[in-house]
Write a structure and sequence with these properties.
2 domains; elongated
Length: 153
């Protein structure tokens, strides 16, 4: 069908499925794009882990055919499937992946801050001990100088 024929069909008074099909295609485009992005991430992670699609199917508790649908990039993935992929492969699929990573990072930062505070306290304690030792040495030196002066008299 030529473009002219398509246009004439659209402007004609006839009830066609063309508009509904176009709307459905536009609606599913975003989902399809996301599904393809997930498929790419799954492929890359499987390659990195040295896993086959059968290995992933076994880990997820699904059939190998289901994994084939996932990696085709044309499957509308359920939230459950997305979460399984995210946890098993440790890949970002949902926003919760980033939220969890941020929580892990914040916990790590708090741990580092506590370590730094501990080291600072130890350093302060060592510094105080050093100052006290320095004061004792200085006082000892002064007393010894006075002692030598008394002996010289």
């Amino acid at each position: 069908m030529t473009n002219k024929e398509k246009l004439l069909q659209l402007v004609s008074g006839e009830d066609t499925k063309t508009i509904a099909e176009v709307k459905q295609r536009i609606k599913s485009r975003a989902m399809l794009h996301e599904s393809q992005q997930i498929a790419i991430k799954v492929f890359m992670k499987l390659d990195e882990l040295g896993w086959s699609q059968k290995d992933l199917a076994k880990e997820m508790g699904v059939s190998p055919q289901q994994i084939t649908k996932i990696v085709s990039g044309k499957e509308n993935l359920t939230i459950e499937t997305q979460i399984k992929l995210q946890h098993i492969l440790n890949i970002p699929v949902l926003a919760s992946y980033y939220e969890n990573k941020m929580a892990e990072m914040e916990e790590w930062i708090l741990t580092i801050e506590k370590r730094v505070e501990s080291i600072a306290a130890q350093t302060l304690h060592i510094s105080d001990n050093y100052q006290a030792t320095k004061t004792v040495r200085l006082e000892t030196y002064h007393y010894s100088q006075e002692f030598y002066q008394l002996l010289a008299v």
